[in-house]
Amino acid sequence: MRVATYNVHKCRGMDGLVRPDRIVEVLREINADIVALQEVVCREGRRPHDHQARYVAEKLGYHSELGETRRYRGGAYGNVLLSRLPIHHAAHHDLSIRGRERRGCLRADVRVDGSSWLHLFNVHLGTAIYERRIQAREIFRRRLFTDSQLFGARIILGDLNEWKRGLPSELLTTYFENAQSHVGLDRVPTYPGVMPILPLDYIYLDRGLQLHNVEVHRTRMALMASDHLPVVADFSLPVDTANDRQADASFANRPQPVSSSFECRPCE
């Protein structure tokens, strides 16, 4: 499977133009099974691409879920999870700190090949060091990534806004593998897009997953479409029959599905 994380900056490119069609082209180049997008604008307007999540999902045939962090020009704004696999459950977790821009974590659960569960977390943390420290403590205090009811494999994707090692990466590496370490680096620059110098975007995976490759996607279109570059990882998901049976029992009591193709709505 292939996963990717991409801060699309409201689909505003390095030339200042809002062009969701360029984001579509970048994602078409990546050809990922699952994509975590940050800074997505979803509002009804005269143009189809005013609702950026729905526009991208329809163009590429993804299922989608929106984790709204705040309102923007009369519409929703936040994190979006795109998946070629049906999304069986989704939930938004507020990570906002008073006085700072609202932030959140979008969780979505998908099933691979009708057998193994995959828990996906799309995270966008704050820009201040103290803010990220509070958010990291809160994530692990609430056990968002480490809940004993998470029977499937877990992947954390997103813009952590962490350009040097801090508490978020320290806590994450306690439980998960930093995908960038696969290429011998803990941090690979992804911002700003044309000449990236800051490593802000990350993928962390369960250590039970077999990681094959990770890279920052650099093409002419990607350099222009947003002020961030996407991070892409390829991995294999092992089948764990016992855990799958436990997960089936856990999911049986939840309303599902919450998403369908070409539909993007705020999650529960």
- Domain count, please report it: 1
Q: Which spans of ≥5 residues are poorly predicted at pLDDT below 50?
A: 251-268
Q: What is the CATH class name?
A: Alpha Beta
CATH architecture: 4-Layer Sandwich
Secondary structural class: alpha+beta
| CATH homologous superfamily caption | Endonuclease/exonuclease/phosphatase
| Measured distance between first and last alpha carbons | 27 Å
Short description:
Helix content is 22%, strand content 32%. It has 268 residues and is an alpha+beta fold.
Your description of this structure?
The structure is a single chain. By secondary structure, this protein is α+β, with helices and mostly antiparallel strands. The protein has a single domain, classed as Endonuclease/exonuclease/phosphatase (Deoxyribonuclease I, Chain A). The chain is 22% helix and 32% strand. It has helices at 20-30, 52-60, 129-141, 167-175, 220-225, 241-251; strands at 2-7, 34-42, 63-72, 75-83, 87-94, 104-112, 116-124, 153-159, 177-178, 201-205, 210-216, 231-236. The strands form two sheets. The protein has a six-stranded mixed beta sheet with strand order 3-4-2-1-12-11. The protein has a six-stranded mixed beta sheet with strand order 5-6-7-8-10-9, with helices on one face. The radius of gyration is 17 Å and the shape is globular.
